[in-house]
Amino acid sequence: MQDQILSNLSEEKVVQISEARNEPQWLLDYRLEAYHKFRDAPIEKNALFTRYADFLRGVDLSDVWPVTSPQKLLAAEKDITILQKDGAIARINLPEGLIGKIVIVEIGDAVSQYPDLIRPYFATTANGTGDKFSHLSDAFFSSGLFVNIPNGIEIKDTLRRMIYQELSRIGAFEKTIISMGEASRLSLLTQFRSGAPSTNEIAVLGSSTEIFLESNAKISYSEMQLLGSNVIAFLNKRIIGGADSFGELSSGYLGGRVTRSVTEMTLRGPRSHLEDLEIVVGSGEERFELGTIITHEGVHTKGIVDLKAVMRDRSSMTLKGMNKIEEQARDSDTYLGGHAILFGDGARANVIPGLEINTRQVKAKHSAAVAQIDPDQIFYITSRGVDEISAIQLIVAGFLEPIVSRFQSEDLQEELREVIRMKWTGESFLNSQNAEPIVVKQDIMTFEKVAEVSDLPEGKLLGVDVGTKHLLLSNIGGTIYATGGLCTHEVTDLARGFLGGGTVTCPLHLSEFDLKTGEPLNPPATDPLKIYQVKVEGNQVFVALGDVEES
Ligand code: FES
Hints:
alpha/beta, Rieske Iron-sulfur Protein, 2 domains, 18% helix, binds FE2/S2 (inorganic) cluster
């Protein structure tokens, strides 16, 4: 199996991906190190769990090719903030009020635009506990996100991301880094979806997400896996909590051929609190291989893993959990729960909890149970006039609800309830309204060269004409911004205005505009300036002009 996984995932491919993305040497080195770790690591590192490590049995990955140089795509779906498709970023559409306040960019763009900001996170991510498949995504990622929420910024609405897999015989890997500043807030919901498989050809989707919480930061990070029966998913998450931080990771695993997910939570700062809530609903031949690792390093920390699974047909689920309290982490509280109900003789569930406690003053609990559905319960409900299928649905919903209702995102709660219902009635969520194959348009939002960095010394405004557009470029503290170049009050060239502290003042009636958000700060102008995405490569400044045409 090891050889099959590796057959198309070679060192040469790693170099090819890095070259195609025009990456700096340090990032190529990072990828190569990850590749070597992937190649050398066993499928299961913990000796306690090795007899449960054969989750890829019967799966042939020899015909799966990693995405090397994906085309950029743009999809026209309204309520998705971020769309990734077949290993490419299709769109990032931030709500207007967030532009300029936070950073959410394609990870490759982050490497060129914010190298000093992102590089330390790469150095840290290389030090994870080292699940084999997190190294796989780290070595071969062809897309992903960098999210940076500065200190004190609270984002109230849930941002939605969809990672969509349409093609088969490809391995699409993504890497996401989320850094949360002090007292910042973010809720991000990621859906993994795929089209209804038309063939039995395998596709592999790999995702490695790393979340860093500074003190008092709070994140709700949710994932819903709704993949088709031809997709094998390797989903790795890692979160590190600073002092007084709170992180909730919630996951619904509802499809896919094989889902391997490992979640690592490190409670580093005192009083940090991290939770991992998971729901699994398996049917057919689906296999779920789940691992959780909690490490308490700080005092008074609280870590919770709570999973509920419902398995039917010949589906199977294994949860391997390890909660560890380090010597210095006194007064910590750790919990690992895994409960499953089975329908039919072919369904399987294993919950294997592990606790490693290295200090005395702590609370540590685990709870695990796997049982067939209780026929008395069905009898009791049907005796009230409810048919048997509805009775089973009620039991399933009631069993899962204590976890579903704890998910911070109400959007996710609602969607989960609906998908659980559909899964149980046998309706395909792959063909549901929400999962229509995404209509993809060719992105002609290509970046156009507009200036040289040397034209824009710090504190300078520059007006440029690109096609029919007049843009205003500015250099604020070493970062280049692009906005519409004409005042929105009357048509006046803002390049002739006055730059000061991140704003430009119109030379005619003195309205001031924020150059990062485009917002007017005083009358008479009331409409904001349009904001354009900027990319800097070497000495060249590129701007995405944002027009879209059907391909
Ligand atoms: S033209 Fe700019 S404020 Fe009137």
